[in-house]
Amino acid sequence: MNLLYLTIVIPLLSFLILVCSGRHISKNNIIIIGISTIILLCILTVLVCIDYQANTVPDTSLIYTRYLWEWFTVGDTKIAIALQLDGLSLVFLVIIAFFSLLIYSFSACYLTSSKDIYTFFAYGNLLIASLLLLILADNLFILLVGWEGMGISCYLLIGIYYQKRQVSFSAIKAFIVISIADAFLLLGMFLIHNELNTLNIREIISLANENLAIDSEIIFWITLVLFISVMGKAGLFPLHTSFTESSIAPMPVVTILQSLAFVLSSGYFVLRLSPLFMMSTDVFVIMGVMAGITLIFASCVSLVQNNIKTLVTYINLGQISYIFFAFVIKNWELALYYMISYSVTSALLLLSSAILIKVSNGEQNIYKLGGLCRRYPVLYGTFLLSAASLCAMPWIMSAFYTKGDIIWGLMINDKMGLGTIALIGILLSTLSILRLISTVFHHKQKLTSFTPILPYSYLPLAILAIMSTATFVYLPLPIQGLVPSVDFNTQNQLILQLLLAAVTILSILIAYILFFDTNSEINEIIHTPIGKMLFRLWHNEWCFDQILQIVVIRPYLYLARLIKTDPLSQWNRAINWGARKINFQIASLENSRLRWYMMSIVIGSIIILLLLILI
């Protein structure tokens, strides 16, 4: 564990090498550098796990701190560069290393342009280094550095094709939302330091329990601003722009952002500060409301999207809400299990979509595809497994157990409204993915030429497909004592499981009636007045951009124009004009004649003496 810092240093050095020399390195060498970086990270992770297990005493929680150096001191506050490893950060370290290896391996087969490969691996390494710094930081200031590094990495990855105007705008929009989230995190740090006079995470949790009252006003404001910062990273409504705008990037970028970066950074932050969040009851109410709104918002939008990348992005956005539902019932261990399940399902869906777009010559409109079931049976199978996971296929997929336990927890905690929304979310997401599958694989074939794909590209999908089943659900994780424990009542849970199975079967039947039959009634439904209204509303993403334009952008521009011409600005301009005129007159006296200089000195001295005498 003494080499823990190398998990951050290695991807950071790889980033610097590729950024400085990537344009001059051949494609194969770039792939070797990128893959070798992640392989070294995986080897280090294995060694850290072995060392951690060897030093762990039964029934205790090992916390290892690797002090590197003291960064700076402000008053009584000392900020040190130190890494902290415990069971929670170890779990996230393993997840990041494993998924990074899968995504990088897929990208090496998927990306063809040398420029795309070196920019992806370079910025991807910066993202991984920032994410690892975030989960290993022992104080909030170092965590903020990793948080900011993630924001910069996301901006760079989304804007890989920055020459295109729309891509550039999307990267800027995502960066603005991420920066808003960063500002709230900074505000939360100020509040914490003002109350507790420390930024060390373990000291914050300990001192908060001793010095701050449960449900006090200061606790509410601290947890609220921290939750708003998490909303910007996770993509909860209305700060979902960073998540949705990532869909404009290449598919490996979309995968590493949506399956890894956004969900793990936000989820880890809440889990790490879970004792602090548990001191505020009101913030969980807000958390549940925003998660429910996000689920309905994203699920409805995904129902009517024709673009593959946009469709799967909104499906993933809706699935993130279940993590916050688990937070609402304060079942932190269940939230972590679902986080892993989400990452597997999301990566499987996105990588399958990447291959679909690749073989279709870059075509992303689902209605311009069709009839691919027999041509690509393996790809068809991965999509079916993705759909099975999204619809929580009873007793087969891991999502059935994780989602089922989350919904059961909501219901036994008297949160029937959120539990109902969670069930509706399963139905809508199932309809969305089955609509894609039926249109692309079962309807009449429209494309005549296809791009071949390397067989090795299916290997990461096969691994993810196996992991999405119930085989690996609820594996023991070393997080006991690190997050608050909760008693989970499983009595009569079979009734909920049967209800969940009924919802799954119902959603499959509805999808078959609406989408699999080319002569279905779907067109009649769309062309009804209500259908037309809902289709336009959902297709335009609930008119969110238009509302944002009216509520935020136009008032901002109006105030900017108003401030530009305010009296204070006019007064400043008048002073600057007068200073320039005086300077011009003085400059004209600089004629290199000594008598003029002597005269000015004498006149100035006389004026000063007169002022001293008279005043």
Automatic annotation (TrEMBL):
Coarse class of the protein's main subcellular location: membrane
Q: Which residues cross the membrane?
A: 6-23, 30-54, 79-105, 117-135, 141-162, 174-192, 218-239, 251-271, 283-304, 311-329, 335-357, 378-401, 421-441, 453-475, 495-515, 596-614
Which parts of the sequence belong to the NADH-Ubiquinone oxidoreductase (complex I) chain 5 N-terminal domain?
Answer: 71-121
State if Membrane is listed as a keyword. yes
Q: Which PANTHER family match?
A: NADH-UBIQUINONE OXIDOREDUCTASE CHAIN 5
* Source superkingdom: Bacteria
Per the UniProt entry, what are the Gene Ontology biological process annotations, in alphabetical order?
A: ATP synthesis coupled electron transport; electron transport coupled proton transport
For this UniProt record, the keywords arranged alphabetically read as follows:
Membrane, Transmembrane, Transmembrane helix
What name does UniProt use for this protein? NADH dehydrogenase subunit L
Give the bilayer topology. Multi-pass membrane protein
Q: Name one GO molecular function term.
A: NADH dehydrogenase (ubiquinone) activity
Q: Which Pfam families match?
A: Proton_antipo_M, Proton_antipo_N
**Domain NADH:quinone oxidoreductase/Mrp antiporter transmembrane residue range list:** 137-427
Record's GO cellular component terms = endomembrane system; membrane
Q: Where in the cell is it found?
A: Endomembrane system; Membrane
